[in-house]
Amino acid sequence: MRQDLNYSIRSIRFDETYQPGDSTRATTNFANLARGEHRQDNLRNACAMIDTRFNALANWDNPNGDRYSVELDILSAELTVGTGERVEAFPVIEILKPMIVDQTTDARIPGIAGNNFSSYVRDYDFSIVLPQFNKDRADFVAPEDFGDLHGNLFKCFLRSDAYRHHSEKPPVICLSVSTSRTYHRTGNRHPILGVEYRQDDPSLTDRYFAKMGLRVRYFMPRGSAAPLAFYFTGDILNDYSTLELIGTISTMETFQRIYRPEIYNANSSAGAVYRPSLTHPDHSLARITYDRDERGRLAVEQGRFAEAHFITPYRDLLADWSARCAA
After folding, report:
1. Averaged over 15-37, what is the pLDDT?
2. Is the distance from CB of 102 to CB of 112 less than 8 angstroms?
3. Cα-based distances in Å from 241 to 168, 196, 197, 246, 251
4. CA 232 to CA 238: how far, in whole Å?
5. Considering the domain boundaries, does residue 1 fall inside one?
6. Distance (Å, whole) CA 121 – CA 291
7. How many Cα atoms within 13 Å fall on the side-chain side of residue 127?
8. Residue 87: beta bridge partners?
9. Phi/psi class of residue 89: alpha, beta or left (left: φ > 0; alpha: ψ in -120 to 50)?
10. Phi, psi for residue 113 in degrees, rounded to 5
11. Is residue 133 included in any domain, yes or no?
12. Domain of 165?
């Protein structure tokens, strides 16, 4: 029986009082900060770092470096699945939406949705499907249909009324560069995004995000230690305003400085030819507590959660729905 699946979005503010919901992935970078003895200090310091970085990039008509602040909302997208009496809402996607507050004019300027990208299904694909597919193989490869369902889930989400209610523009996802790739500086320089880098070969993440309808470019903003990977639809250089781009950079560079300090809090900037490394010793640590080993372990657990509660019980329904989305 044909079943139309529907998206809904819940929004919660990310600030020093933030408490992760029961359906939030524990490995999500903002949720990881909100646990443990130092959770409130973590959240307060992360928000302050975002504001400081924003004002450093938006430095015109900003003599004291305090004109702007950034409010972050976590958008949690749920997909209603099931038939008959068994209908459940499964949390498929979490993204961030900044709101830029101009303290001088009291203007509130919506930022770009996206930034961070959290997905239980991506955990399932990378932590369950890939290892199983490569268990007895000499060469590490991805299945031909790797990421097809996830890509259609994301593309249908962007077409949903729920997403359009929260954002008039397509999202920009901003991630770390890959430690398995080499990046070469180009002569192209954007006034906000900074100097552009090019990669020697697409990564598995690049190919996975391509199935979501996103392409990637790499830019190192002024004052940054390394390029960031920007995944987007359309034209990232012309579709978004200066302040919108600064909102994304300040938010995600802050998280990367916390989670990958060897790359983004390095004491020297990337050169003309750059190979990121998580063993780079010359870096500084943010005053924020973070357990990277725990984050890696939980990815497998959350992949199994998606398999047990979403992929397996609704496999046929999802296959039919995904095929119709693709069409």
Report:
1. 67
2. no
3. 13, 18, 21, 9, 16
4. 12
5. no
6. 22
7. 20
8. 82
9. beta
10. -70, 150
11. yes
12. 6-326
Chain-wide mean pLDDT for the chain?
Answer: 89
pLDDT, mean of residues 218-247: 97
Whats the size of the chain, residue-wise?
Answer: 327
User: Minimal CA–CA distance to 117: which of 18, 209, 238, 245?
Assistant: 209
H or E element that contains 69: strand 68-83
Taking CA atoms, 164 is separated from 6, 85, 161, 168, in Å, by 13, 29, 5, 6
Distance CA 289, CA 174 (A): 22
Classify 229 as helix, strand or coil: strand
Say if 197 falls within a structural domain. yes
Query: What whole-number distance in Å separates Cα of residue 265 and Cα of residue 105?
Result: 33
Residue 161 identity:
D
Distance CA 53, CA 47 (A): 10
The closest of 254, 260, 227 to 70, measured between CA atoms, is 254
Enter the tokens of residue 94. Answer: 């979490």
Strand, coil or helix: what is 8?
strand
The rounded distance, in Å, linking the Cα atoms of 228 and 108 is: 26
In total, how many domains does the chain have? 1
pLDDT of residue 223: 96
Cα-based angle 325, 78, 315 (whole degrees, multiple of 5)? 55
Phi, psi of 101, rounded to the nearest 5 degrees: -110, 120
- What pLDDT band is residue 312 in, cutting at 50, 70 and 90? very high
What DSSP state is assigned to residue 177? P
Q: What residue type is assigned to position 102 of the chain?
A: D
Structural contact between residues 139 and 130, judged by C-beta atoms closer than 8 angstroms: no
Distance in Å from the first CA to the final CA of the chain:
18
Q: Is residue 161 part of a domain?
A: yes
Say if CB 181 and CB 200 are below 8 A apart: yes
Is pLDDT at 289 greater than 90 in this prediction? no
